[in-house]
Amino acid sequence: MATNAPATDGRRKAAAARRRARQAAIIAATREIFDSRGVRDVQIEEIASAVGINRAIVYRHFTGKEELFALTLVGYLDELHDAMADAAASGSSPADRLERIVGAFVDYGVAHPAFVDCAQALMVRPGEELLDEIAEGPLFRLGRGITSCLTVLSDTLAQGVDEGAFTLSDDPVLLANALYASGLGALQLARLGILVSEAAPGIPTVGQISAQQVRSYLVRSALALVTV
């Protein structure tokens, strides 16, 4: 007896493939816009225009701007993970590995300022809002992307403790999260390139700071924290 099930399955697979391709194209366009001019004030209409579609189609694939930005951030995080993992693999000792990992984090953030903006934009949102605005699947992918980077760092910290090279007052996972969050803030300082201080009581002054100085500071701070 003839059946149209194979033809129906084929159409479903083809439709699913087209949907995935369209989603990938939208994310790629978002990433290109981010890299060319930053994250602030990017509108869905601009992204849709870059893909050659209207905004309504974007919303068929993503629940909103936050979900689209989160999935774009995943791409940055995948690249950051690879850079941190390569840095860890090239280290000769726990301290050397930690120094290289932190350095790789800073180098990536300096080279990709939109990563910093995107990560911070999502970090300032309350968790309950993100859960409401980002579907479970994309939220899982975002969490996996962040965790993959943090795990490179926390594993290095834990290995250093096991080898007797590090003495931690906190859990390696907590310290890894704290270093990640503080590192994002320091990367903004590197981008601004200015330091505010007091020239005299009540008299502010502005100095300069380079990305290399921020990098050195973050490396020294991380090494200091593991010998507490």
From TrEMBL:
Residues 20-80 form the HTH tetR-type domain. PANTHER family: HTH-TYPE TRANSCRIPTIONAL REGULATOR BETI, HTH-TYPE TRANSCRIPTIONAL REGULATOR RUTR. Keywords: DNA-binding, Transcription, Transcription regulation. One of its GO terms (molecular function) is transcription cis-regulatory region binding. The keyword Transcription applies. Residues 43-62 bind DNA. The keyword Magnesium does not apply. InterPro entries: Homeodomain-like_sf, HTH-type_TetR-like_transc_reg, HTH_TetR, Tet_transcr_reg_TetR-rel_C_sf. PROSITE patterns: HTH_TETR_2. This is TetR/AcrR family transcriptional regulator. It comes from the Bacteria.
